[in-house]
């Protein structure tokens, strides 16, 4: 919707010609007084004789009917080019225009440029009443001899009338109306005002309207005072036939026309023959007409926002200067890092990537890369397609944030809520059997929400999904400010681990709420918009924010996600994604390795990254940590390198409690409740809670004298959980990390092909080791980490 009160070009005319400001357009009717034509009656007698040879009074009365008013020259909006810049205004990204035009005041047009134009177009301009009778007679004679209209005989004023008010239909009727209005315009405006409007509005070819746009199009010159005499003469000769004299397409004709203009300047005494001769020998060096385009995907999103704010007509014709939120240096870095890392991963069939960086406190998009290369068109890289702002892709485990957040908001869960990493089978979506697994194919048993997020486990997230329901998760996504819906009849449990498609910009925007302690700020590609008068019509430097999540809940999630960039917090991700300062991160991988993502932030900067292929071909041997995670790390180290090290202040209303959880790097298992009499002695971890949600009871109903009392969260999962328990006490699910004793389950005999099962060994005192502790006969060890990422190929 257009902003009220903003009319393209209107403000320009109002401030430049105040004596016509506020006048309403009127039509000249036969039955009313014709205005100030009577004073020029003698001139009209001659003009009438030249045109039709009939009575002047009858001519005026007939042709003046339904004419626009001459002062409409100042009130009819002038289409002006809109320029889109980076945030500093130093780098032009793109130009929006129906007509390429920049306004210029007459004082900015060199005197020689004015003289060249007057010499070739209207040598009696300063003295004629708007029409040149002698010129009309000469044109009539030439047209009569040719049998068609070959010369116009139009003055500068008539050309302006034709361009702005009447159109260029080659008829005698239009010429008569043009003459009438030219006389009226000369009595309404000064000659300088008419000449200024001419230089702003006349067409010079190659989509260039006005002298300033023409100078920039043909010669790349913005300051008209830098034009040479030869260049001025060439430009002055264009309006009569811009295509015929186009120096880009027809250099010989352009040179001949330039010579005619120089000869006319000599004839009128504006230059000497020697000056004209020197100008005629100047080489003509023109720029091929083109439109610059930088940061294309970002620029098109900024254009989209501008059109939504002002309307398409105003955006293309309003003459605005749009200062976007783009940080030019950060954009160059983002483009380079995307290229370099994708180049290094091409052996793994990774060919495309997208990246968004924003300030989570203001919503300003600072860098935006929509594809590996905008100008590349291959099956894997559809470069002009914006994979950051248009493409809907599955977000994988990055979506789990919304699932766990829903658990806190709707089900009273906390960071220490006990969840189960145990496989199950149940109908999903269309009723087909659904048997999900973790990416590692392991099953870790009972652990806390914090640990589930640390290791990005699927099974606990699915437990939360079933607990709260997919509708509640969708509501949370909406609560975070994302206007996205899904066909709820077709989605099932897998929705909670990222099976629903989303755009990367929406994922970044949702994470912004958590990065801003629960405050929603709409993302913006625009910093401010300035109209042709210099008035700021839109200012996003002071964004509006609204609270959508309790800041204490957001702070707890910030603290959990911070573990993923800390080698001491997450053995899975920390070694690969640390940026040597506190930062939060969540990665995601989709089935069949079609998409890998990483979204992470500090309090000052948030970056979201996607990698994959446009044709959905599968990547090979890559993970979210080693693909987008490493790109995020390398890029963010530079992005935040000059910013102070900062983390979120602890808000009021956060309380700490010591809970029963294995605090080891490879731990995370436990009850998550207050330690009871049977909680293993080393299972002590200080967890953060929103006041009022902290546990108030101990875990004696879970850790019993016979071991873990295992009850599945849903009755129809109990069979699968029992099968896990039977394997767990037999050591199948120890992974060198856990030792399980579970009430009602005893170790099975050692299989012939296996080594002695330490899980069934008695503890040092002859009693079973405490449930969930590392087996005493095996030192704790991690799952072997993945190999280091390939070194990106650096461009010279």
Q: In what order do the strands lie side by side in the largest sheet?
A: 4-3-7-15-16
Query: Ranges with pLDDT <50 over ≥5 residues?
Result: 1-15, 21-53, 752-796
Radius of gyration: 38 Å
Cα distance spanning the termini = 47 Å
- Judging from the principal axes of the Cα atoms, what is the shape? elongated
Number of E-state strands: 24
The number of helical runs is 25
Q: What fraction of the residues are assigned to beta strands by DSSP?
A: 5-15%
Helical amount: 25-40%
Instruction: Give the overall pLDDT as a whole number.
Output: 85
- Helical/strand content category: alpha+beta
Most strands sheet: 5 strands, mixed
Overview of the molecule:
This protein starts with 9 loop residues before the first helix and ends in a 67-residue tail after the last helix. Helix 2 packs antiparallel against helix 8, helix 5 packs parallel to helix 11 (229-236) and helix 11 (229-236) packs across helix 13. With 796 residues, the chain is α+β, with helices and mostly antiparallel strands. The chain is built from 25 helices and 24 strands.
């Amino acid at each position: 919707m257009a902003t009220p009160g903003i009319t393209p070009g209107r403000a320009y005319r109002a401030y430049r010609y105040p004596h016509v400001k506020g006048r309403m357009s009127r039509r000249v009717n036969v039955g009313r007084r014709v205005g100030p034509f009577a004073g020029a009656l003698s001139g009209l007698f001659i003009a009438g004789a030249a045109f039709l040879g009939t009575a002047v009074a009858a001519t005026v009365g007939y042709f003046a009917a339904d004419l626009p008013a001459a002062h409409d020259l100042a009130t009819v909006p002038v289409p002006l080019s809109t320029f889109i810049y980076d945030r500093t205004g130093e780098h032009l990204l793109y130009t929006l225009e129906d007509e390429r035009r920049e306004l210029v005041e007459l004082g900015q047009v060199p005197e020689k440029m004015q003289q060249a134009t007057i010499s070739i177009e209207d040598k009696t301009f300063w003295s004629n009443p708007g029409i040149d009778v002698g010129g009309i007679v000469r044109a009539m004679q030439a047209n009569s001899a040719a049998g068609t209209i070959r010369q116009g005989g139009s003055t500068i004023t008539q050309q302006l009338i034709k361009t702005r008010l009447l159109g260029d239909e080659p008829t005698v009727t239009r010429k008569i109306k043009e003459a009438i209005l030219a006389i009226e315009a000369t009595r309404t405006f000064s000659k300088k005002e008419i000449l200024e409007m001419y230089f702003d509005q006349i067409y010079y070819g190659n989509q260039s309207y006005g002298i300033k746009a023409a100078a920039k199009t043909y010669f790349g010159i913005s300051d008209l005072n830098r034009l040479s005499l030869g260049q001025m003469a060439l430009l002055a000769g264009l309006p009569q036939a811009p295509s015929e004299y186009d120096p880009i397409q027809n250099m010989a004709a352009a040179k001949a026309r330039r010579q005619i203009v120089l000869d006319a300047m000599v004839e009128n005494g504006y230059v000497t023959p020697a000056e004209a001769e020197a100008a005629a020998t100047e080489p003509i060096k023109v720029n091929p007409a083109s439109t610059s385009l930088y940061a294309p995907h970002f620029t098109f999103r900024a254009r989209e926002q501008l059109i939504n704010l002002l309307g398409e007509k105003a955006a293309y014709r309003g003459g605005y200067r749009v200062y976007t939120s783009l940080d030019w240096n950060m954009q160059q870095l983002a483009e380079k890092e995307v290229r370099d890392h994708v180049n290094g991963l091409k052996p793994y069939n990774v060919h495309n990537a997208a990246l968004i960086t924003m300030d989570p406190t203001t919503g300003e998009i600072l860098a935006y890369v929509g594809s590996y290369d905008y100008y590349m068109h291959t099956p894997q890289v559809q470069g002009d397609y914006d994979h950051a702002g248009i493409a809907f892709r599955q977000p994988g485990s990055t979506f789990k944030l919304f699932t766990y957040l829903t658990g806190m908001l709707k089900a009273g869960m906390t960071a220490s809520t006990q969840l189960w990493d145990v496989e199950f089978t149940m109908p999903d979506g269309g009723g087909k059997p659904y048997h999900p697994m973790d990416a590692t194919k392991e099953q870790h048993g009972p652990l806390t929400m914090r640990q589930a997020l640390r290791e990005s486990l699927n099974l606990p997230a699915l437990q939360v999904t079933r607990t709260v329901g997919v509708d509640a998760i969708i509501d949370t996504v909406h609560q975070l400010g994302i206007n996205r819906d899904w066909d709820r009849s077709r989605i099932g449990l897998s929705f909670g681990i990222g099976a629903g498609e989303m755009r990367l910009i929406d994922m970044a925007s949702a994470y912004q709420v958590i990065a801003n302690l629960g405050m929603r700020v709409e993302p913006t590609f625009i910093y401010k918009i300035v109209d042709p008068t210099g008035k700021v019509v839109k200012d996003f430097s002071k964004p509006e924010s609204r609270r959508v999540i309790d800041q204490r809940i957001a702070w707890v999630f910030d603290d959990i996600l911070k573990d993923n960039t800390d080698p001491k917090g997450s053995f899975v991700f920390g070694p690969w994604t640390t940026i040597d300062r506190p930062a939060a991160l969540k990665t995601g991988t989709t089935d069949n390795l079609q998409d890998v993502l990483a979204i992470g932030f500090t309090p000052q900067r948030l970056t979201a990254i996607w990698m994959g292929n446009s044709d959905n071909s599968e990547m090979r041997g890559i993970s979210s940590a080693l693909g987008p995670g490493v790109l995020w790390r390398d890029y963010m180290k530079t992005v935040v390198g000059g910013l102070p090290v900062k983390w979120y202040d602890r808000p009021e209303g956060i309380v700490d409690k010591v809970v029963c959880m294995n605090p080891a790097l490879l731990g995370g298992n436990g009850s998550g409740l207050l330690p009871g009499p049977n909680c293993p002695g080393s299972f002590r971890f200080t967890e953060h809670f929103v006041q009022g949600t902290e546990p108030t009871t101990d875990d004696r109903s879970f850790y019993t004298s016979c071991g873990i009392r295992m009850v599945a969260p849903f009755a129809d999962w109990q069979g699968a959980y029992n099968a896990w328990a039977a394997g767990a006490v037999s050591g199948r699910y120890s992974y060198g990390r856990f030792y399980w004793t579970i009430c009602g389950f005893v170790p099975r005999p050692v299989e012939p092909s296996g080594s002695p099962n330490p899980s069934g060994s008695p503890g040092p005192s002859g009693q079973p080791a405490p449930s969930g502790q590392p087996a005493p006969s095996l030192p704790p060890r991690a799952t072997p980490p993945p190999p280091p990422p390939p070194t990106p190929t650096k461009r010279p």
